[in-house]
Specification:
heterodimer; A: TIM Barrel; Alpha-Beta Plaits; B: alpha/beta; Fumarate Reductase Iron-sulfur Protein, Chain B, domain 2; FAD/NAD(P)-binding domain; 3 domains; 5-stranded parallel beta sheet; 17 strands
């Protein structure tokens, strides 16, 4: 079996599956259950200054799929609502009882140096393996000048990171907010401040849905609501892109990344790792299904690695980064064409109407004498957009077949159809 | 008819328990089930379920509306095409129509979307503040409809929508036709047929006159003279005969007559129920009869059919209902003789075994007897000839033993239209009758308007 153990910016863990700083890591009881279930590490729910934050009721809402499966999740919880003293005591005890698991402590404090100088020695005294700076919480805390309010200003990110490096020997992981135009900026700032790693993404500003009778968004607090932080599978594509942006940025290349955002199974984890993550953090999936999911995540990842011949996580970490590029470097001569397997086709007509109404009219509807429908690709019209394959309810029925064009690789900067091609290559 | 069975015992079970045997055969979906089931629909384009639906319901559309919690929209979409969508949801043989061709009913999955139950869910759970269809401006035309069954009701509703007034002449005490008198009790429960009629009439402009029997107190020639058009939704009132001696003996009757009495009985325990019953036939009525008499307490119910299972017009789904209700089904045997007791009442039936000789069904000469106190015939219905004996009615062209019509359900007599089971096309399904009525209404409207324009 593949070796799932990792060393992430100097922090060792038996596997790359960590629980993100969030309700599941709020207190010893939960964290112990998580370790019993087999999680490789936790990022303890964010500690702050005393007195502790106070939360409202209610706190969560969701975006549902067709079968009421949760696609996206939204929360308006603040950082820990328990005292610093209790949290530090519990962290100390849990780390002592579970020495092989990664114990990271998330922190959020005002942007004044003395707060950090004061708290860091206390955190270090717990025996924790590292700290994570919560520069990403998008709701509530930014109104008080913390969380995303810091993460959105690269200068602050660099400044606070530098304080942490100054007052602590622990590895510093800077957690980034996605509520920003270009995530590379705060990542570069974190690196400049001396960060040992970044973790991303934190949650995305969101309103999931409304109660149309009461005319108020969810979750409802009294008669009102506020935007929350969005997470769950729906945010995975956004997170993957941001991870890739940092992984392939020449300025931050090689900076360890802890991937977060919609990870719910081994495959999600493998994707983050392939795009450069050294470990992953999970929250929503555990909140929806319980800690036991780590069992299938470990098993699935390990078996897949065995199949592919990867002995350890580092064997494939970042392996897809080089294949993630700018649009202008894509091969203009590459061509795929849809192919419909008539044996598998159930004649639902979805590919046809999608292509006919909204794409390139490249699928023909054929009606035989008995009135039976069949659908065939008009090869000359197909641009290879994948829409039909995406709409098809039968997996594997429509495949996109690469065509042999005999033409060499030619990107847009080399393409004679590009009016600026000469200027760019010159 | 059923009075001839008065010498038979009554069910031994108390009324309440008997009533429990006739509750919904296919219980309705709960909200949760409807959510799950509607999510299974793939929302096909040019969907096969809609293409096969005799009443052209946009199935994918109404299911999507159910899923989006627009129940009124779902129901309105169904009722727009089929005003009897509630009863059709219950009685349609979906297993040979929409659910048979559902794209999810293929090898990999083998589970079609439960379209019938979803349709019932939509219609049952819709809450309309007023009747969902508006009438067009009054045309001043009045159309006579003979028969308040599905075809006549559907025709009447569509005509009312188009601005015409309608008078329906019905021979029974209640409107509804086979929905009221002929469908197995456990398929249409809770007086649904009457509720549906009341809903339909709420559009206004439709008057129903009961106990009006064509050929008795009503003549086609008079209707033709008095009204702007006439639609005949007569159904098939006559039960076919076995052609055997003893056919009139007490204990032998048409299944439809017993079912009608069963459907109208306030107290099921008052019905005469034999210990042993024979049902002759292989259609849905035969199955309905066999299962219902079994549920009333008959101990031995034998359904006999002269051909094999594959030739039965009852669907596999219906055959399964019979099997799960302990109905014994004998195939390849035909009635030869009604066996009578000393008092001249039915004591059983002698059957002759049959086989195919080439394409021809032939008796083998080998016989066997089945003892029974009652024999129910369910060998098909035909047009009641009494209804069409006045000089004008006699001119109606026939197609076989049914009334011949064109694609607009026009008979050969100008101004007279016909639809439902009494006309040639179709398989005598409720949903087809509804469609006939709807299309006939459109033809009547078209013909009346073009006459006005021409004048």
């Amino acid at each position: 079996m593949a070796d799932l153990s990792i060393e992430f910016c100097g922090i060792k863990a038996p596997n790359p599956f960590w629980l993100a700083s969030a309700p599941p890591t709020d207190k010893a009881y939960n964290v112990v259950r998580a370790f019993e279930a087999g999680w490789g590490g936790v990022v303890w729910k964010t500690l702050g200054e005393d007195p502790a934050a106070v939360n409202v009721s209610s706190r969560y809402s969701a975006l549902y799929g067709k079968n009421r499966e949760v696609v996206g999740f939204n929360n308006i919880e603040l950082i820990t609502d328990r005292s610093l003293e209790i949290n530090l005591r519990e962290i100390t005890q849990v780390k002592k009882d579970w020495p092989d698991r990664a114990m990271i402590v998330s922190l959020m404090l005002p942007c004044e140096e003395h707060y950090w100088a004061d708290i860091l020695p206390k955190v270090e005294a717990t025996g924790a393996d590292g700290i994570e700076l919560n520069f990403g919480c998008p709701h509530g805390m930014p109104e008080r000048g913390m969380g995303a309010a810091v993460g959105q200003v690269p200068e602050y990110v660099q400044m606070v990171t530098a304080w942490c490096k100054k007052y602590s020997k622990l590895p510093v992981i800077v957690k980034l907010t996605p509520n920003i135009t270009d995530v590379r900026m705060p990542a570069r700032a974190a690196l400049a401040g001396g960060a040992d790693a970044v973790s991303l993404i934190n949650t995305i500003n969101s309103i999931t849905s409304l109660d149309l009778d009461r005319m108020v968004a969810l979750p409802i607090v009294g008669g009102a609501s506020t935007h929350g932080g969005y997470c769950g599978s729906a945010v995975k594509p956004i997170a993957l892109n941001m991870v890739a942006e940092i992984a392939r940025d020449p300025q931050t290349r090689g900076l360890p990344i802890s991937g977060i955002g919609g990870i719910g199974n081994w495959r999600d984890a493998a994707e983050f790792i392939a795009l450069g993550a050294g470990c992953v953090q999970v929250c929503t999936a555990a909140m929806l299904h319980g800690f036991r999911i780590v069992e299938e995540m470990k098993d699935g990842l390990s078996r897949w690695m065995d199949e592919k011949g990867y002995e350890r996580i580092s064997d494939f970490s970042g392996k897809a980064v080089a294949n993630t590029t700018d649009w202008k470097y894509l091969d203009m001569n590459y061509q795929v064409i849809a192919q419909i397997s008539q044996d598998d086709c159930i004649k639902c007509g979805k590919c046809y109407v999608a292509c006919e109404d909204t794409s390139h009219q490249a699928i023909a509807q054929l009606i035989d004498a008995a009135g039976t429908r069949s659908y065939e690709v008009i090869k000359d019209e197909c641009v290879g957009c994948n829409l039909c394959e995406i709409t098809c309810p039968v997996q594997g029925c429509i495949t996109m077949v690469p065509q042999t064009t005999g033409k060499p690789y030619m990107n847009w900067t080399q393409d004679p159809r590009n009016p600026r091609a000469v200027a760019e290559t010159a | 008819m059923i009075e001839s069975l008065s010498y038979l015992p009554h069910p031994t079970l108390p009324s309440e328990e008997l009533a429990g045997h006739f509750t919904d055969l296919a219980p309705p979906l709960t909200a949760r089930q409807a959510a799950i089931e509607s999510a299974r629909c793939l929302y096909c384009y040019d969907a096969p379920c809609s293409r096969i639906c005799p009443s052209e319901i946009d199935v994918a559309g109404f299911i999507r509306n159910i899923h989006d919690k627009n129940i009124n929209g779902a129901a309105a979409g169904i009722l727009k095409q089929n005003i009897l969508g509630g009863s059709c949801a219950r009685v349609c043989p979906t297993e040979i129509l929409c659910e048979d061709v559902c794209v999810r009913n293929h090898d990999a999955e083998g589970q079609p979307v439960k379209i019938g139950l979803l349709q019932r869910y939509a219609v049952d759970h819709a809450h309309f503040a007023a009747h969902p269809f508006k009438r067009a401006a009054a045309t001043g035309k009045t159309i006579a409809i003979v028969g308040a069954g599905p075809a006549g009701l559907s025709c009447a509703h569509r005509l009312a929508m188009l601005g015409h007034d309608v008078v329906i002449f019905e021979k029974e005490d209640k409107a509804g036709g086979l929905n009221e008198y002929g469908i197995a009790k456990y398929k249409l429960t809770d007086d649904f047929a009457q509720k549906e009629v009341a809903f339909l009439l709420a559009i206004g402009g439709i008057e129903i006159r009961c106990r009006q029997v064509l050929g008795e107190n009503l003549q086609l020639r008079e209707l033709h003279a008095q009204y702007d058009a006439v639609f005949l939704g007569l159904g098939l009132g006559a039960s076919r005969k076995l052609g055997l001696t003893g056919e009139e003996a007490p204990g032998l009757l048409a299944a439809v007559d017993y079912i009608a009495a069963l459907r109208q009985a306030d107290d099921l325990s008052s019905l005469p129920v034999p210990k042993r019953a024979i049902v002759i036939g292989a259609g849905n009525t035969a199955i309905d009869m066999a299962v219902q008499i079994q549920r009333l307490g008959a101990e031995e119910v034998t359904l006999v059919y002269r051909r094999g299972f594959d030739a039965m017009t009852a669907t596999h789904h219906e055959q399964d209902i019979a099997k799960t209700n302990q109905v014994r089904m004998l195939t390849w045997a035909q009635p030869q003789q009604v066996l009578l007791d000393a008092g001249g009442k039915v004591a059983g039936m002698r059957f002759e075994k049959t086989r195919l000789e080439g394409a021809r069904l032939a008796g083998t000469g080998e016989t066997f007897d089945v003892a029974a106190e009652t024999i129910f015939k369910a060998i098909g219905q035909s047009l009641a000839s009494d209804a069409l004996h006045d000089p004008m009615a006699a001119l109606l062209k026939r197609d076989g033993d049914k009334i011949a019509v064109d694609a607009g359900f026009r008979t050969v007599l100008p101004g007279i239209y016909a639809g439902g089971d009494c006309v040639a096309p179709g398989q005598d399904l409720t949903v087809q009758a509804v469609q006939h009525g709807k299309l006939a209404a459109l033809a009547i409207h078209h013909d009346l308007i073009s006459k006005v324009e021409a004048a």
